[in-house]
Design goal:
By secondary structure, this protein is an alpha/beta fold. The chain is about 25% helix and about 10% strand. The protein folds into two domains: about 40-225, Rossmann fold (3-Layer(aba) Sandwich), CATH 3.40.50.12170; about 250-395, Aspartate Aminotransferase, domain 1 (Alpha-Beta Complex), CATH 3.90.1150. The strands form four sheets. The chain has a seven-stranded mixed sheet, sandwiched between helices. A three-stranded antiparallel sheet has the order 12-14-13, with no helix packed on it. Helix 5 packs across helix 6 (about 205-210).
């Protein structure tokens, strides 16, 4: 039987037209690659340690997987001759600012030499006992976080002795650049370099800047080798697997630290003496102006003599504050400083940092004498930020020379 002509005209072209290629879309988006710190890439650096006497600059953040890097490498047969402990000590049981004594590690029997007591860097005698020094400490990307001072100090010891420094690099959780450049007339234990509050670099990158900018004694040069973080790029969100220090004990505290540490130079408590440090702000004199309150106590290993001990402090609860916009904008929050200064009834006492046993001087913390005067004068946030230029932009250009990771 013959098909009607109109049926052939309508349907036959459908069989003759070539198939149109349609791009297949995956049902699930690929998972991002896992970030692997330098320390966890043991196969890359274990051969470098074979037959060598090893020293390690480490603290509780120094881990391979979920185990101490010292314990892990010791178990692999690495000849560790000395452990150098920075602030808080190797096992992290010392309070902020507390001097740390030399000891013998009970777990491994290895001598532990304090770099936060009688000396701040390995001596000539210490360096004679080792062939290579490992630096493996998690940084949080701030000028006043003292471990970058320790980094420079051990680089000087390596440079003087001709020994190599092996840096097991780790991500920067506060990976942005902001704040005024430190006025070197205000150089102190909480500010050693002409950099902003947040420097936007990993420790491995910062070591390159120390070398390149001649920031060591007599502009010495240290031979460094960096085991880079795998699958890491600048600007990534990164949650620390281990507490950065006794008082940076939550991811939120780490992200708020660049902003809240500035209050160490004021009469405002940042929560030291509680189990929520660097996530709250308050003082007794703010009672009636804020309903939220907390009471600092003596906590061994964290804060034994905190500001406003045993007093109710009223102020801001930032434990659930969304830090994402700050990180995306790459900013330290100075609006809280402006707000609490305006709210504080005894303004002549607001910057009385002598009552804070931890830091004490707002000028040294911020890095400039202008900031305190600007807050007192009622300057706006935009006016204060404008005063950080052109230094901040110049630093950003300088930083690019030393980056090991893409932005």
């Amino acid at each position: 039987m013959r098909l009607p002509v109109f049926i052939l005209c309508v349907f036959l072209p459908l069989f003759l037209v070539p198939a149109i290629a349609v791009e297949a879309k995956p049902m699930f988006a690929p998972k991002p690659a896992v970030v692997i710190p330098g320390a966890d890439q043991v196969s890359l650096y274990l051969p470098l340690l074979k037959g060598k006497r090893v020293g390690m600059v480490v603290n509780p953040t120094s881990t391979i997987g979920n185990k101490s890097s010292v314990d892990s490498l010791h178990a692999l047969g690495v000849d560790i001759r000395a452990i150098f402990g920075p602030e808080h000590g190797f096992r992290g049981n010392a309070s902020n600012g507390a001097k740390v004594k030399d000891e013998t590690d009970p777990a491994t029997g290895i001598p532990v030499i304090s770099l936060y007591g009688k000396k701040s860097k390995p001596s000539e005698e210490d360096m004679a006992k080792i062939d290579i020094l490992i630096y493996d400490i998690q940084d949080v990307g701030c000028r006043f976080f003292t471990y970058i001072n320790t980094l420079r100090n051990v680089m000087e010891s390596c440079a003087a002795s001709g020994k190599e420094l092996l840096i097991l690099d780790r991500p920067n959780p506060n990976d942005f650049v902001d704040g005024p450049i430190l006025d070197m007339n205000l150089k102190s234990g909480i500010g050693q370099f002409p950099i902003p509050i947040t420097h936007g670099m990993t420790v491995g990158e910062f070591a390159g800047m120390i070398n390149g900018e001649g920031w060591m004694k007599d502009k010495q040069q240290c031979k460094i080798k960096v085991i880079k973080v795998k699958n890491y790029t600048h600007g990534m969100d990164y949650t620390l697997p281990v507490n950065a220090s006794p008082n940076l004990n939550t991811p939120q505290s780490v992200l708020l630290y660049p902003s809240l540490c500035l209050f160490e130079g004021t009469i405002i408590s940042q929560g030291r003496g509680t189990y929520m440090p660097f996530t709250v702000l308050g003082a007794p004199a703010l009672k009636g102006k804020y309903s939220f309150h907390f009471t600092p106590k003596s906590i061994p290993g964290m804060s034994e003599d905190p500001l406003h001990k045993n007093e109710d402090c009223y102020g801001l609860d930032l434990r659930k504050y969304n830090t994402a916009p700050l990180r995306k904008a790459g900013k330290v929050n100075i609006a809280w400083m402006i707000e609490l200064y305006k709210a504080y009834p005894f303004k002549e006492k607001f910057f009385d940092g002598t009552q804070s046993k931890a830091m004490g001087d707002i000028n040294k913390l911020v890095g400039t004498t202008a900031f305190k005067a600007q807050i007192i004068a009622g300057k706006s946030e935009s006016e204060i930020r404008k005063s950080w230029e052109p230094g901040l932009s110049q630093y950003k250009q300088l930083r690019k020379k030393y980056l090991l990771y893409q932005e």
